[in-house]
Amino acid sequence: xTPEAQLSDFLADVGRLREAVSTxxxxxxxxxxxxxxxxxxxxxxxxxxxxxxxxxxxxxxxADALSLRFARIQFTPDxxxxxxxxxxxxxxxxxxxxxxxxxxxVFAQLVLADEINRATPKTQSALLEVMQENTVxxxxxxxxxxxxxCVLATQNPLEMEGTYPLPEAQLDRFLLQLQVPFPSRDExxxxxxxTAHALMPSPAAPVLSRERLLAMRELVRQIAxxxxxxxxxxxxxxxxxxxxxxxxxxITRFVRYGASPRGAQALLLAAKVRAALAGRFAIGGDxxxxxxxxxLRHRLILNFEGEAEGVAIDALLDDVLGAVR
Length: 325
Description:
The structure is a single chain. The protein has 325 residues and is α/β, with parallel strands linked by helices. Helices cover 47% and strands 16% of the residues. It has 14 helices and eleven strands. It has helices spanning 3-22, 29-41, 55-65, 81-85, 121-133, 168-171, 185-195, 210-221, 227-238, 249-254, 261-277, 285-296, 304-309, 313-323; strands at 45-48, 70-74, 86-93, 96-103, 110-114, 135-138, 141-144, 150-155, 176-179, 255-257, 301-302. The strands form four sheets. The protein has a five-stranded parallel β-sheet. A two-stranded antiparallel sheet has the order 3-4. Strands 6-7 form a two-stranded antiparallel sheet. A hairpin with a 2-residue loop joins strand 6 and strand 7 (141-144). Helix 2 crosses helix 11 (261-277) and helix 11 packs across helix 12. The protein starts with a helix and ends with a helix.
């Protein structure tokens, strides 16, 4: 099959998936694109939005449409690491007593970590190996997770009391941080028409298989990256560091640490998906610019002055994009 035909099939399958999701979720197209980007790149996303805007419904609907095993984990302060990864249980049968491993909910393929910042750091850290290595180690035995695998964690920006902010090391493991906007009035009318005046539509029917999703992931990896565009992405990354951004006074004043090398990887991978969705075999500078907020906003660490001033990180990223040509 020619590359053009592969890309045509790719766009047709994405269209079918988008249509299936739209039967259950009203609007939230940027959220869908972000979730799709993570699934097509093997990354994970941190989703931030007020309650009731469709975060959980979106993730569950995507899992249904892709025939992926779905697990929702409600993070609470009393949640233990073994509640996530599983534990060894002593069982007795005809051959005697023996320990058997009972896998936890992280062994699903699409995992929703609901309000992840409400769990203790000990429990949050249990996701580190899962997200980075796609493996789980229990009692000296390493278990490999089935692909595709994606963790989508949510945070509620309103209620911060009694929460445990995610450490920088774990934040950096998220490919994207997605911000879910409040629906427009027209979208609210559609939501009410679907839920208050009629029964909720049935779960989305499967439209793509696991094997097809993995094939689409391979196609995304083949999208070309011109050297000049890769250099642009690296210059954007460097401009987030206060010791390398002398022409950006707000970066040097308010930022303690800039984005890590994983930020550059996130820029290129997300840009590849954006180019593929536009029907192109190579990414451009506009693709990188479009994904900068989602790929880097959670990787910039403000200093004390920046936090005290309430500086918006997205505004700092706008300064970076304005300075780096």
